[in-house]
Design goal:
The chain is an all-alpha fold. Helices cover 65% and strands 0% of the residues. Helix 1 crosses helix 2.
Length: 204
């Protein structure tokens, strides 16, 4: 059992979930689907590193961690119901055994980033999901390439419009990050990265 699997199994088990090994095996298969380039276990592991940095500021870190593990477990490139289906996946496997199941589902749904969640735990889940925007420029560029590779059905102009709609919406917010922890840690670099990306011109 590797460290990633061991971490999930320990979390799932202490949260009251059953069949932790089987749930992890299914989750890992989902994250390894061939259409994925960015939305893989690598992204989840990076989320967990950011969660560990902020752990002392998060009211219920185990609940946030469960949401992060499962927030992209169902991912169909271009689909608009990935988060909803990921929440359903989690609910079915929690089997009524995990306390706060609906609150965790709400955190998964919040990672659509369409609004500001009411609860601090959900705000942390969203900020951790977006922490990659505040990475060093080289990693930010690499993540952009991986995201682009997940949408081969879009030509460059169509993908540029898609990307600008998402990044432009985040940049237009008063704050990209809704928690003080990640606002202080990531906001400046994230705004610089997103502004740089939006400033790249498409070829004529």
């Amino acid at each position: 059992m590797n460290r990633t699997q061991a971490r999930f199994v320990a979390l799932w088990s202490r949260s009251g979930g059953a069949h932790a090994g089987n749930v992890y095996a299914e989750l890992a298969r989902c994250y390894a689907e061939p259409a994925r380039r960015y939305h893989t276990l690598r992204h989840v592991r990076r989320c967990l590193r950011d969660l560990d940095l902020a752990r002392g500021s998060i009211p219920d870190p185990d609940a946030v961690e469960l949401a992060l593990w499962c927030h992209d477990v169902i991912y169909v490139p271009g689909a608009r119901d990935n988060e909803q289906n990921s929440a359903v996946w989690f609910r079915c496997r929690a089997e009524g055994r995990i306390a706060g199941c609906e609150r965790i589902c709400a955190m998964i749904l919040a990672t659509t980033h369409t609004g500001v969640p009411a609860g601090l735990d959900a705000r942390f889940a969203c900020d951790i999901d977006l922490a990659v925007l505040g990475a060093p420029r080289g990693r930010f560029r690499e993540d952009g390439e991986l995201l682009r590779a997940e949408r081969p059905e879009l030509d460059d102009r169509a993908y540029d419009r898609h990307e600008r709609a998402i990044l432009g919406g985040l940049l237009a917010r008063p704050r990209i990050y809704q928690t003080d922890f990640f606002h202080a840690r990531c906001e400046t670099r994230a705004r610089s990265n997103v502004t740089w990306r939006l400033g790249l011109r498409m070829p004529e």
